[in-house]
Amino acid sequence: MDEFDFINSIKQPTYRQSSVIKGIGDDAAVIRQTTQDTVTAVDTFVEGVHFTNVTMEPFHIGYRAVAANVSDLAAMGATPAFYLVSIVIPSSWNKEELNQIYKGMHKMASIHNMDLIGGDTVSGKELTISVTVIGFADKDKARYRSHAAAGDIVFVTGTLGDSRAGLHILENPGTYKDTDYFLNRHRLPEHRVSFSEKLGSLKRVSLNDVSDGIANEANEIAEASKVSLHIEENSIPVSKQFYQFPDKLQYEWKLFGGEDFELLGTVPKHDWERVITAAEGTNTPVTKIGYVSNQTKSDVYIERDGRKKPLFKQGYTHLK
Ligand SMILES: Nc1ncnc2c1ncn2[C@@H]1O[C@H](COP(=O)(O)OP(=O)(O)OP(=O)(O)O)[C@@H](O)[C@H]1O
Ligand SMILES: Cc1ncc(C[n+]2csc(CCOP(=O)(O)O)c2C)c(N)n1
Ligand SMILES: [Mg+2]
Ligand SMILES: [Mg+2]
Ligand SMILES: [Mg+2]
Fold this sequence. Notes:
Elements: H1 3-10, E1 20-22, E2 30-31, E3 37-46, H2 58-74, E4 79-89, H3 95-111, E5 115-123, E6 128-137, E7 153-157, H4 162-171, H5 179-187, H6 193-198, E8 206-209, H7 214-225, E9 228-232, H8 247-256, E10 263-267, H9 272-281, E11 286-293, E12 299-304, E13 307-310
Parallel strand pairs: 4-5, 9-12
Antiparallel strand pairs: 1-2, 3-6, 4-6, 7-10, 7-11, 8-10, 9-11, 12-13
Helix pairs in contact: 2-3, 4-5
Bound molecules: adenosine-5'-triphosphate (ATP), thiamin phosphate and magnesium ion (3 copies).
Residues 43, 68, 72, 211-212 line the site of adenosine-5'-triphosphate.
Organism: Virgibacillus kekensis
Binding site for Mg(2+) 5: 212
Binding site for Mg(2+) 4: 27, 72
């Protein structure tokens, strides 16, 4: 199969979004947009860094690559619409494996009615997938990290540390409880788009998705908003069988594990009830884990049994 057969094999026969004027098949795609704000992001997924042949099957690789990007759109309060895929393919990957990667991408995309409108295909050493997403938010309704203010409630969706626990199980085979649950959390992460969309009527929300761990994400909100975030350690939600892992690992994973793709956010106290309603309406667990103050600027604190300490920007970092 050459490059052109490959492109033909991944091309959608029709597009779901009516705004596509030109999809795959020219030098670039064309979409027509008039009323909303366009929101776009790109995240890259690399063999040996984000996955190995021990941790993921081809379907998971595709699903996870698109999910991470969809998660960034959710964190902006945007509705996903399009994606473009740039893929570097080593010669060791066969046609069926590539087909499975695209099946995984199409699966995640179809949940959100997204169209694949372009990309690029080259050969190279490590399988690398770079996904660009495009979504739309109502005018001036994108949710920024800079939108936290003193007095806000800090909340998080779902449970934290599960993806890292799944990776641990994959890399350390043994007997564990709820193995499939943890593996799925690592390989087929959640998407919090509908919850984020339901927050649409709120005047002010800050949001950040948990790709590197909440220690990192909370610090990003604190820095962008020039406020301090105070998090209660025992309020951080974890799954039922998370307690099977050693205490030290639980602590590390829930704060620094990353790749849970949950949403960390802040809202004014008077809107908290509406966040709960949005969560209930979309089957999204949501937990209050702390509050925002302007005691100091750009800091995060973690509190346990009345003792407070700074929570530094520590987690997964690519360039050390
Ligand atoms: N190489 C780059 N060139 C231009 N902009 C970049 C580059 N890398 C990151 N950015 C920009 O920096 C900002 C933060 O990106 P970052 O990747 O940290 O966010 P994220 O996608 O939420 O996190 P993660 O990559 O862990 O999922 C974004 O605006 C992003 O577009
Ligand atoms: C085999 C293997 N080893 C380690 C990890 C952990 N890991 C890789 S990248 C990343 C942060 C998110 O990436 P990004 O910042 O690029 O979004 C994390 C936590 C993994 N998933 N697979
Ligand atoms: Mg990124
Ligand atoms: Mg993000
Ligand atoms: Mg991201």
